[in-house]
Amino acid sequence: MVFVADYRSDTITKPCADMRKAMMEAEVGDDVFGDDPTVKKLEETVAAMLKKEASLFVPSGTMSNLIAVMAHCQGRGEEALLGDKSHIMIYEQGGIAQFAGVNPRTVANKPDGTFDLEEAESKIRMEDIHFPRTRLILVENTHNQAGGKILPIEFLQKVRVLADKHKLMAHLDGARLWNAVVAMETTPDTIAQYFDSISVCLSKGLGAPVGSCLVGSREFVERGRRHRKALGGGMRQSGILAAAGLVALEKGLPRLKIDHANAKLLAKGICDGKFSSYTCDVVSTETNMVYLMMSTGVSAMLVYKILDVVLEGEEEELGQGIQVRVCPINQACIRMVVNLHITPESIEMTLKKLAFVDRLIVSGEAANHLPNKENYKTFSDIKNPKKDRWGAKL
């Protein structure tokens, strides 16, 4: 029997029984014609929570962010300012350039997910026939690449002042806005008030199977609705999905504090383990993300692969009857996202596996515990290299 702890993302969760029941019983209509009452209820609920005029239900956060940029930047060749480590810049395939014809101009993200506002202001274009027109500032909260950090309210206020000074719009990629809200013990509108539009995800942390909402003024949302249709986001009887989103907001939002507590528990366990191969920063674990930082000379890809492998006949007490699924960020860092399927027992088993892997690395036996180990001498000396889904050579 293999014990599995899956930290790849908070998107891997399965719908609960209440969600499945709500989906089965949902009243539906054709949402492209505006006839789906359950979708309307979800959109109205999210708009009210963020104290904005309207909301648009879309299949994903990536589409939601793209629609936001298209609705704000109404002429091709316009420009958006954004962090160089933001999700929109790194993980959305350059969609704002690829599909919207909008130029992304980056500002260096700081370790806490913010960026220097003086640098941002210096990159706002003057009106000149040679330049793209700066139209939009994009901000991410919580910040994925910064380890799920919450952006300070003071920073958000200054972004709003900067946008108003230069007559720009401001959009928030709030895929995990809910985590920030729960950790700050505040309300969604406290953060949303500084932005013209906000994208919030229902499948990250809250447990819904799919969907995001794009929130803003009525005029903005109606422009967005046209873009959604062009991008293939008209989902017809999507009330069956919106129903799950409503349950996610009702039941998933209050329990995010459990994920945060479990993330702290995991981070503390890693630090208390005093492993030679890796560690993490408990103080920096503000929400549901734990970043496992490799010691000098230790490959994150090696750790990732051994955590994932369970060899037949190994005993659970040694930590090898346990599969821990994680997401390598680079050769020096692994991201572990706590989600509703992670329990204190999961964390206990994870720490056993981390101790097991640490012993293998310290003893020099790590490569012998990788699959198809006969194919190579060491992790970096592979005769037949393949690539995993992250694009890294194994």
Explained architecture:
The protein has about 400 residues and is of the alpha/beta class. The chain folds into two domains: about 15-250, 3-Layer(aba) Sandwich (Aspartate Aminotransferase, domain 2); about 255-375, Aspartate Aminotransferase, domain 1 (Alpha-Beta Complex). Helices cover about 40% and strands about 15% of the residues. It is built from 14 helices and 13 strands. A seven-stranded mixed sheet has the order 2-8-7-6-5-3-4, with helices on both faces. Strands 9-10-13-12 form a four-stranded antiparallel sheet. Strands 1-11 form a two-stranded parallel sheet. Strand 5, helix 7 (about 155-165) and strand 6 form a beta-alpha-beta unit. It is globular.
Any chance you could write out the topology, listing elements then pairs?
Blueprint: E1 3-6, H1 17-25, H2 37-50, E2 54-58, H3 61-72, E3 78-83, H4 87-90, H5 95-98, E4 103-107, H6 117-122, E5 133-140, H7 153-165, E6 169-174, H8 177-184, H9 188-192, E7 197-201, E8 212-216, H10 218-230, H11 239-252, H12 256-273, E9 278-279, E10 289-294, H13 300-308, E11 322-325, E12 327-330, E13 333-337, H14 344-363
Parallel strand pairs: 1-11, 3-4, 3-5, 5-6, 6-7
Antiparallel strand pairs: 2-8, 7-8, 9-10, 10-13, 12-13
Q: What is the N-to-C succession of helices and strands?
A: EHHEHEHHEHEHEHHEEHHHEEHEEEH
CATH overall fold name of the largest domain: Aspartate Aminotransferase, domain 2
Describe the global form: globular
- Determine Rg (CA atoms, Å): 22 Å
Count of DSSP helices? 14
The CATH C-level name of the largest domain is Alpha Beta
Total separate domains: 2
Q: Which structural class do the helices and strands define?
A: alpha/beta
The CATH architecture of the largest domain comes to: 3-Layer(aba) Sandwich
Task: Describe the oligomeric state of these chains in a short phrase.
Answer: single chain
> Could you give a short account of the major beta sheet?
7 strands, mixed
Stretches where pLDDT is under 50 for at least 5 consecutive residues are 373-385, 388-394
Strand order of the largest sheet: 2-8-7-6-5-3-4
Overall pLDDT level: 92
Helix content: 25-40%
The total count of strands amounts to 13
In terms of DSSP E residues, the strand content is: 15-25%
The first-to-last residue Cα distance is 26 Å
CATH superfamily membership of the largest domain: Type I PLP-dependent aspartate aminotransferase-like (Major domain)
